[in-house]
Please model this.
Amino acid sequence: MKKLLAIGLTVFVASAVSALAGDAKANYESNCAKCHGTDGKGQTKMGQKLGIKDYTDPKVQAELKDDVAFKSIKEGLKDADGKTLMKPAESLSDDDIKALVAYMRTFKK
Model:
């Protein structure tokens, strides 16, 4: 019985993690891909205009800190003159943002 319970719990956790990953991908595609590109390279018209970093670059990934990425997504980004570079993701929960940051990490090659 304990073995069956352990297997059931494992399947439940795996499906929950999988669902979060799917939600993160969907959130990325609807909130981020326009500028950052579906592949994270930032090679979109807006991404090139804003000089967005290539998140497939291991060096960029190493320099990116999760707490900074989280804050940037949650609060948005402005340049030195106060011009909005990236709007805050107001429709996303803190858990959604954490999953989004983890999803961004999958772009590293």
